[in-house]
Write a structure and sequence with these properties.
Layout (H helix, E strand, L loop, with lengths): L1 H12 L17 H5 L1 E15 L8 E2 L5 E13 L5 E13 L2 E11 L2 H10 L5 E2 L1 E4 L6 E5 L3 E5 L18 E6 L4 E3 L15 E6 L2 E9 L5 E3 L2 E12 L8
Parallel strand pairs: 5-6, 7-9, 8-13
Antiparallel strand pairs: 1-3, 1-14, 1-15, 2-4, 3-4, 4-5, 5-11, 8-9, 10-11, 10-12, 12-15, 13-15
Length: 246
């Protein structure tokens, strides 16, 4: 099922490369590389208005008077390539590149060195480490902290969504360019720009999805919109790179 989704997304989203970029040195492969990877857990995405970044990615920033759509993504993985860990992503802008629209992550942080190493070695994702705590107590999801540590209260609200007799949502295809930490819609408009970013196709599904209140108590130049999308029973199937570029 997931490979059928990957094939459909790839057909809709890609064009043949017009120029061959410099290839990275080959690395050792494994059975996991050939079959892809599966991550399971839960996440929240809290949209926020953020200022256009000073160091944007190689993409056009969609903005109005210097403001764009970013946000906070927090994930708790129960199973992954390296076991359980936490992840915290600062989404920095709504972007358009080569006919595709997506969300760029300005900073990706994980809770241990093993996860950081996997991000960098397996997918070439720039990552950092930070002390992360997701606490169940609280009626509202609230993030607080600084550059050294981040805490989210009310995490039990992520786990409390409606479930219907073992129902799981259909897998949503999403394109991922790990080199610039961006997620893209699986369709694109025609473009004559050179394609030089490796693309993985993701299949995202969940057993419960809900809107929750969200507050950001950090001292950051962002305008929270007051809510987040929370999903439990999250499953992320990552297809291996098959030569597609964006």
């Amino acid at each position: 099922m997931r490979w059928m989704l990957a094939a459909l997304a790839a057909t809709a989203a890609f064009q043949p490369p017009l120029a061959q970029p410099t290839r990275r040195p080959p690395r050792a492969t494994s059975a996991a590389d050939e079959d892809g990877w599966r991550f399971e857990g839960r996440f929240v995405f809290a949209p926020q208005l953020v200022r256009v970044p000073d160091d944007p990615p190689d993409a056009y920033i969609v903005n109005v008077f210097g403001w764009t759509l970013g946000g906070v993504v927090a994930l708790q993985y129960d199973t992954s390539l390296v076991g359980p860990y936490l992840e915290f992503v600062e989404m920095g802008a709504l972007v358009v590149r080569n006919g595709a629209i997506g969300q760029w992550g300005s900073r990706l942080l994980v809770s241990n060195d093993e996860a950081k190493q996997a991000c960098e070695d397996v997918w070439c994702v720039p990552a950092g480490t930070r002390s992360l705590k997701y606490m169940d107590e609280g009626d509202t999801l609230v993030v607080e902290g600084n550059d050294a540590a981040s805490t989210i209260h009310g995490w039990a609200r992520v786990k409390g969504g409606l479930r219907l007799f073992g129902w799981r949502s259909p897998a949503l295809p999403v394109l991922w360019t790990p080199q610039i930490k961006a997620l893209w819609a699986p369709v694109k408009l025609p473009s004559s720009r050179n394609v030089d970013l490796d693309v993985h196709v993701l299949g995202l599904s969940a057993t419960s999805i809900a809107l929750r209140r969200f507050r950001d108590k950090r001292d950051v130049d962002r305008i929270p919109l007051g809510f987040c999308v929370a999903a439990d029973g999250l499953r992320i199937d990552i297809a291996p790179w098959r030569g597609d570029r964006l």
